[in-house]
Amino acid sequence: MSAASSASYTDPATKEAPNMTDVERGSAANSHLLNTTVHSLAWKGITVTVKDRETKLPKTIVDNVQGIVEAGEILALIGPSGSGKTTLLHHLASRPTNALSTSGTVLLNGVTPPSPRTLRSVTRFVEQEDTLTGALTVRETLYFASRLSSSSSSSSSSDDGAGTTSWQERVARIEGLLDAFGLRDQADAVVGGPGLRKGISGGQKRRLGAASQLITAPKVLVLDEPTSGLDSVAGWEVLIVVASIHQPSTSTLNLFDKLLLMSHGKTHYFGPVTGVAAHYESLGCRMPVHVNPAEFMLEMVNTDFAQDRESAVQRLAEMQHAWTRSRGAQELAAAVAVVEEKGSGVGHLEVVEQKPSLPRVVLTLLHRSFIKSYRDVVVYGIRLAMYTGLAIMIGTVWLRLDAAQESIIPFINAIFYGSAFMSFMACAYAPAYIEDYMQFIKEKRNGLYGATAMLVSNFLIGIPYLFIFSLVFSAISYWLSNLQPTTQAFFTWVFWVFLDLLAAESMVVLLTSIFPSFVISLALIAFANGLWMSVNGFMVPPSVLNVFYKYVFHFWDYQKYVFENMMVNEFSERVYSCAQVESGCQCMWQTDLADQCLIRGQGVLDQYGYKPGHMGRDVGIMMAIIVGYRLAAWIVLKLKR
């Protein structure tokens, strides 16, 4: 019985299919998530041209390919490396292909989707190397994927409308997928990654990647070299499944309904899996008995290892030409034409896909990020250790400084060093953010959420941790160094350290979003921090800083406002004793207290041009800088494909 037909039969008494598995029960419970809108996916004349890496000339890697898959069918794409399988999959799923040009038509229900967004809204794509959050368990990965794709209701029924899933339905669906993909024993194991204990194996990650997309109830599932476990689940939910597969076993190949065989970007066969042997027999190439059909096909269309490459290429061209003149090619063209002629329209697809609201998505991402934050030491644990170590070092190097003039310059140095290096160490956030970024790109391409939800949740999850860092750092270093010993001054210091970290992390988010490579982003973050340190007013006082750096960088350097307000916090309300010499009293800064052998702290501030009373303005500027970084990052993520 085919996948489509088996999915349509139910026992009238129980309303369940006979001999239902757990996953089938989960699917039955989620009947409102079944595919009732997309009846066919067809494509014709698909041609993709890219720039050749070696010659830099245009190269066609998908050449006039056509095909059709209907609801309940699973299509296998087979071909040697470089045959264009992955590029075709990306094009069908409306994902980036780095193409110079593309042509051809993709049809949903026989008509061209009104926009790429429509196609993405009903399609899920599973990469060869899927991006997963290492700190989550297998069950949690499925749970959050489900939450991001559908709203939830408190009722046990699914009468709330399309896209609404009750808690019981969600749990049933998760448990069913765990069984279907052979992940039951690993359900509570973390996925694994740097800074975490050993996680699940690579093969299990591949299966989890497929399951995490299937749980979002796609209408079309596209997989780049998947593993087993799809046949029972996809068949029950009447999905359209398109999958590239590398050298499948005979039993695996027989699970597919249709086969698309490609080589050098061209079609060599499209049709039922059971018909490929007859096609090659008609070409005079009988398939040997007891030979894996997939291996036979790949050997027929692969020229990479041919001893006489020229004759092999000529023979391949003849076989491809024979396919274009075959009855199977004519039937395929006719089937695509019939579907296009009877096109039922897809204008309603985006209405049916009821996604969770923005606040609900943000809460889900916050929940997921919170779990990651306390399980994965790379996220915040390492930074807490770094900031604590920095605080101890500063507190013990600048230990118990006196309120005397010989301590003034050390106080200034401690203020600069503490604030600047707290900012600099924010680069340690880059690896954790890159993982979030890669997860976001995958989920954005699959239509789960956008840049707004990503950045809002990222900002909110960081606030309490950054405040804890500020408090721990200040509690250690501030009192050890004997900075202005008042409660108000201490919490003012904590506040500016907190703003410093918020701005630094926002800069990390922006630069890493532009260049999501740890090495490149780290280099840029280090350079940017070096620039901010140079022009923040410590190295060169603002009064003598050259015009270019003063007006181009100085006034939007967040470290400038942190350093200035920390200086005001320390010196505006404090006096320091002058040095006692034989002739009397010697003051390095001349203020109105010189006759008392004292230095008013404002005299120190005057050499930098700093005045108290501007804290409110500077806080506003800092918030504008932080928002500016986040807004710029939002634009970058919005433009990312």
UniProtKB/TrEMBL annotation:
Residues 1-11 have a biased composition (Polar residues). Keywords: ATP-binding, Membrane, Nucleotide-binding, Transmembrane, Transmembrane helix, Transport. Residues 41-289 form the ABC transporter domain. The keyword Zinc does not apply. It is a multi-pass membrane protein. One of its GO terms (cellular component) is membrane. This is ABC transporter G family member 15.
